[in-house]
Each structure stands twice: as C-alpha cells, then as structure tokens.
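Hallway conversation turned thread

IA: we were arguing at lunch whether anyone had actually written out Sporulation inhibitor KapD end to end. Turns out nobody had. So, for the record, here is the sequence (207 residues) and right after it the structure tokens. Reply here if something looks off.
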Amino acid sequence: MSATPQYLFLDFEFTMPETKTEPRGFFPEIIEVGLVVVVNDKVCDQFSSYVKPTRFPVLTDRCKSFLNITQEQIDQGMSFHELVALLHKYDRSGPITVVTWGSMDMKVLKENCMAANLPFPFAGEHRDLAMEYKLFFGNKNHTGLRKAIQEYGDEGVGKAHCALDDAFTTYNIFRLVENDKKYLVKTKPPTIGERIDFTQLRKKFAL
C-alpha cells in the first residue's frame, strides 16, 4: 500500500444484552467488522466479516433483531484473535489514521483486547468524526451517522448497522466535511487591481 495520506474507516457492531440493564459481568463484544482503506483519496481496499464473541457467544434476541443477523452467521465468523491480527496488519502498512463515527468503536476494541490479553492493534492517530462533525457545525448534541449523511442530502450506503455499509458512509461524510472545511480557509485578499475594473474606470473619465 502507498504511504500517505492513508485512512482506515472502521465500523464495528457489538453484542447487546436482552434488556437495557446489563447483567453482571456483561460487556459488549465485537461481532461484525467493516473497514475501508483510502489512500490519496482513492478506495484501495475493503473488508467485512462477522466475528465470534467469546465471553457471551450466544446472541440475545434483542441483538439479533436490532442488527438483523443470525446466530449461524456469527458462529461462522472469524475469531477475535484473527480480527486483531488483521487490524495490526493494516496498521503496519504505513502511517495510518483510523476514522470512526463516535468513540465507542475504539473503546470497545480496547476493552475486548484487554479481556483477551491481546495488544491494541493501532499505534497511529484516531479521529472521532462524530465529534468533529459536532464541533464543525456547532451542534449541542452528537448526530447519528445516518442523520448526518441525510443532512447532506444523501441516504448513505446500504443499510444502517451493517458494518461495511456504515464504514463507507463514514468515509462519504468525511469527504463532505473536508470539502466544507476548505471553503473556510481564508483566501488571499484581492489586490486593488482585482477589486477595480480599470477598463470601466477609463471609459468613465474618457467621457
């Protein structure tokens, strides 16, 4: 892969308890990964897979319904160890900036690595695009991924809560926000010659 600029747009889906009150010992585990690698403004790689949870391997009905997935799909997924090895491989490919919508993805990844006694796979910069979006537009609250892309007049890629589709949607918002930022860059003040049409001025005094 090329070195710079390189971005990894990353999205995870997690396990969830049957009720909003988490049972003792429960913590969210990654069960789906979607990632998009962008180098020099071009998508050069993408990957998606289900991931088998280890501490709570049986999905709750609430989780299966919310994410529209089955137990069989999860059982056939990659192991968490394989996921960490894959992410570390991308991290070693060169200077990489990981971009997620919100802080939850990195938080859960760190917690899952600690629980599995595995090193965190990323050494570079992480950008929380949801926070950047909030600060850029001066919003009081965080905006959801799909709502944010709708505010740009788009419906996003695929379906919500599909990890790869959400990773692509995050990338699309990133491009839109970065383009908006360029408009705010102060341009060089025009010279007096650019402000005055001397052709019209000469005509006026020639009368």
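OS: looked through it. The longest strand covers residues 30-39.
IA: good, adding that to the notes. The longest helix spans residues 163-184.
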